[in-house]
Structure prediction request, 305 residues.
Amino acid sequence: METLRTPDERFTSLPGYPFAPHYLDVPDDEGGSLRMHYVDEGPPEADPVLLLHGEPSWSFLYRRMIPVITGAGLRAVAPDLAGFGRSDKPSKRADYTYQRHVDWMRSLLEGLALQRVTLFGQDWGGLIGLRLAAEEADRFARIVAANTFLPTGDRHPGDAFLAWQKFSQETETFPVGRIVNGGCTTGLAPEVVAAYDAPFPDESYKEGARQFPVLVPTSPDDPASEANRRAWDTLHRWEKPFLTTFSDSDPITAGGDRVLQSEIPGAKGRPHTTIEGAGHFLQEDRGEQLARVVVDFVQGTPGSG
Prediction:
């Protein structure tokens, strides 16, 4: 598999992101390997909070949450998905599939030997993370879902998502920083917008970002639909603590929290939270508040997994 690797100098002096890089090679599914980047902060012996980003962001999105999590004595692990951040970027769009994203992240969890994991997944971080939690349930102690869902293609994806999907495929250039800015209720500073653009020196680095929107199952016969249905079979029996913390201003995932709360047994009776004044990227709009919700949930629920 041919890959691109963003030059290190693109990641110097990023605002509020002082974290040392860590790397792990994972199988690329074609006999080679991909180098995946992850942030790893806090006591190494502490229970990990796995922070999974989505489209088209990277672990920079969690810079405000990580200090709150580690300040509570927890370990924060924030990977960059393949194709994003400081991770390697397969150069062909066809290299990216939903299954491969799940498998690449599974390999990282196995390589780091993560156990007693608290999953925090937003956007594609939930689409990948919820699959992983269902398939690797013994690794996970609890789940926090934020502005995300696990689609099977059996329900209409919503007009807002279809409009986004159409834009992502038709726009001549894929303006990553502007897309993230547009998904926030607060205007991002120019240097923050630039940090979201940093992983992508030119359009050739954006094949993963371009492909993600069309990998969301929107029809019942999507290649990922059956695997997601199997994941739902597990989630329908999920008794471990499950929390939703959605924002109040995200047209893409609005209402998804109610589905998760009603379908997953472990969500019953939990202190589900609506983050007010936040958009799709609620980590940007209300990062510290969101991190405190996560910490309170971890500290208030018994560990398992």
Remarks:
- The beta strands are 3-4, 22-27, 33-41, 48-52, 75-79, 89-90, 117-122, 140-146, 242-247, 273-275.
